[in-house]
Write a structure and sequence with these properties.
Structural class: mainly alpha
Order of helices and strands: HHHHHHHHHH
Largest sheet: none
Distance between the termini: 20 Å
Helix content: over 70%
Strand content: under 5%
Length: about 250
């Protein structure tokens, strides 16, 4: 699951926040001396890399359903951007002496299952999935990025850059609803299902990886406490509501 930032992304944790402290103020060379923190970062980069690869594959598949040649070309460009993000992540893993395939492997089953359970039935459902589902993951990773060392944080934020899919999806979905209003009800139900599946999948991935869960709830760097975890998911839910409004759908 991943991976695009949308124009209305409202969960960037660094806005108006105090200056970073602890590991969040260190570079990778210093922070990685902590073996648990290093393991958490390898997990994070592995999960992101697999998500980017899956996004590339899915966009390439969605391009086959595109109704026009222009739409097909637009999705192909977005797929290329996702693959570039994948390469950035695997290059970083190699640079820190990790095997990219080994770092990604623990996340393949869960992410593949998420995509299997949320396979779109048509072009519009595919656009909503990319806009809503992938953006939830993007929000989640941005929250974690605020607790990373400066080098890793810069990389993570770079690969969450908007590929253009957000504005593209909004334009196409709103146009379809204007042309046929009854489509909106079906897509709203689909988006709510995606929200539930995406949050459940994110929670499962973190729960299955000790280093990542420790980073999230406390114990590594300036980790979140349990109350902050609740606030984090509230922020993600609020951003989802804004995206639904941008699509012209009820949350």
């Amino acid at each position: 699951m991943r991976s695009m930032e949308t124009p209305d992304n409202a969960t960037e944790a660094t806005d108006g926040a105090p200056s970073p402290t602890g590991i969040a103020a260190q570079d990778w060379a210093t922070a990685s001396a902590d073996p648990q923190y290093r393991a958490a970062v390898v997990d994070l980069l592995g999960a992101l890399a697999y998500g980017e690869l899956a996004a590339f594959e899915r966009l390439a598949e969605d391009a086959k359903l595109a109704p026009t040649l222009g739409d097909k070309a637009a999705l192909a460009r977005m797929a290329s951007a996702e693959f570039h993000h994948f390469e950035q992540l695997t290059d970083r893993l190699t640079a820190i002496d990790e095997v990219p395939a080994a770092a990604m492997e623990p996340f393949g089953k869960a992410l593949d299952e998420f995509h299997r359970q949320t396979a779109p039935s048509d072009w519009l459902e595919g656009l909503v999935k990319a806009y809503v589902g992938d953006s939830i993951a993007s929000d989640f990773y941005r929250e974690i990025a605020a607790r990373l060392d400066t080098d890793t944080r810069s990389l993570v934020l770079a690969v969450l850059d908007d590929t253009g899919h957000g504005n593209f999806a909004v334009e196409k979905v709103r146009g379809a609803i204007e042309a046929e209003p009854r489509v909106g009800g079906r897509l709203a139900l689909w988006a709510r299902r995606l929200m539930g599946e995406a949050l459940s999948q994110a929670q499962r991935v973190v729960a299955d990886r000790d280093a990542l869960s420790t980073m999230l709830v406390g114990g590594v760097a300036d980790g979140f406490d349990l109350a902050e975890v609740g606030r984090m998911f509230s922020r993600i839910t609020e951003a989802h509501t804004k995206r639904m409004a941008a699509l012209g759908l009820a949350a």
